[in-house]
Amino acid sequence: MRPSISIEFEPVIGLEVHLQLNTKTKIFCGCANTFGREPNSHTCPVCLGLPGTLPVLNKKALEYAIKIALALHCEVNPLIKFDRKNYYYPDLPKGYQISQYDLPIAQHGLLVISSGGQAKKIRIRRGHLEEDAGKLIHDDSLGCSLVDYNRTGTPLMEIVTEPDLHSSQEAYDYLHILKLTLQYLDVSDCDMEKGSLRCDANVSLREKGSTTLGTKTELKNMNSFKAVKTALDFEIRRHQEVLQNGERVVQETRLWNETKGTTFSMRSKEEAHDYRYFPEPDLVPFVVDKKMIDAARQTLPEMPDVKLQRLIRDYQIPDYDAGILIQDPALADFFEQCAKANKGIESKKICNWIQGALLQELNARKKSVTTISLTVQNFTDLILKVENGALSNLAGKDVLKYIIDSGKSVDAVIQEKGLAQVSDDQTLDGIVENVIKENEKVVQQVKEGKASAIGFLVGQAMKKTEGKANPKKIGDLFRRRLLNE
Ligand code: ADP
Ligand code: MG
Ligand code: ZN
């Protein structure tokens, strides 16, 4: 056995994402771009690859690709062309896939990820347009495979990173922010389970500090972001063992097996395809003029990576909180309006109320902040009332429910429901006295030094007032009576 060497390794990861664009029609023909329909019901001579047919580029697909390019801070190539990538497989009726080889629509971009509270730039190598293949259905009961050509010709954008990711978590974070970006653009439903977003992961290891790349393996067949992360974790460990045993990693494509939790070899470099790319003679090169690019730029909202960094910077809120807000641009907007309402509420407090109580109410109603009648004024009033002690935290959450449903003002709801916090000393002291009488055992424990038992007593007092007492005051009163504080 070879002696094992202990070397510190750094993982190097590059991701290739295939995104189905949600255009109405396919990329080179007029067939509807659909999912889950009767097999082979949405096909025509063009997408079936019959001889004598000619492809015509879908303008919308090109527009979407430009939007994606801009959102990923890419250079948009002024001249693009399409190429044939040749291989034979039953799901590819033409025997070649129309793709882009040396003049892709997008190049040299970047996406800022937020990993462990740290902003990090991941370079985008390229983004290109291509057509999807059909779908093979393996039917054991029939003892054969069937092919559905509905998917053939679905517009795809392939987005390739530089090998800039250095852990499975960073890969996960990249995918997350990329998906959000694409959702902001509304160019795809980004559903990995439906296959509208697919990700291949390339990974290698190198000695820490080294700048040369190690031999990589390419992982396929992951159908969730979580699976990408676990597959990478598995593969990183496997590379590590191989290298530590003084052996070499074999460059190959490996498939992830979700049930076994392992990767296994699909094909090695020797068997790798030689696609013999050549220019697609049936499509002329396209000039992407400034007008098209400007028009696409006009439609772009602020992108989530930019929004994230801005929220952290402008409102001094934690990375985690900003990360929740950007999941829903309308919610982030609502937060900003509340923070700007300038009522002296800390931004972080507003975040807490949004992430906790508000999101809970929204989820329960399956609604968005734009489809309920909650105003910035009302929401900030509510937070302020709880902050000032006029409402208990619990009553505050109740009030939120009512103001969401009725659209009434916070004051009106407090009056109507009798939810104002009880803060006057005499009333509270009376309640405290009663609780002390009724809980001799716990009182004894408190006196013997178990200060945490006060929490129980406070809880009892809150119950008596149906949550309307000011818990801080109640706690003080118990401490004064029992501990002479
Ligand atoms: P291939 O020709 O095998 O498709 P590419 O050079 O096109 O490889 O790169 C595909 C992806 O793999 C890119 O995201 C790239 O960043 C990444 N990649 C390339 N080399 C390595 C490596 N040695 N380790 C990790 N990732 C790599
Ligand atoms: Mg590749
Ligand atoms: Zn068609």
* Low-confidence runs of at least 5 consecutive residues: none
Instruction: From the alpha carbons, calculate the radius of gyration and give it in angstroms.
Output: 30 Å
Q: How can the largest sheet be summarized?
A: 9 strands, mixed
- Beta percentage is 15-25%
**Can you list the strand order of the major beta sheet?**
2-6-7-10-1-11-12-13-14
**Tally of helical segments:** 15
| Ligand set | adenosine-5'-diphosphate, magnesium ion, zinc ion
Number of E-state strands: 16
Distance between the termini: 71 Å
Give the helix level as a range of percent: 25-40%
Structural class: alpha+beta
Number of domains: 3
Mean pLDDT: 92
**Quick one: overall form?**
elongated
Describe this structure in words.
This protein has 485 residues and is of the alpha+beta class. The chain is built from 15 helices and 16 strands. The chain has a 9-stranded mixed beta sheet. The protein has a 3-stranded antiparallel beta sheet with strand order 5-4-15, with no helix packed on it. The N and C termini lie far apart (71 Å). The structure holds adenosine-5'-diphosphate, magnesium ion and zinc ion. Zinc ion (ZN) binds at residues 26, 29, 31, 43-44, 46-47, 153.
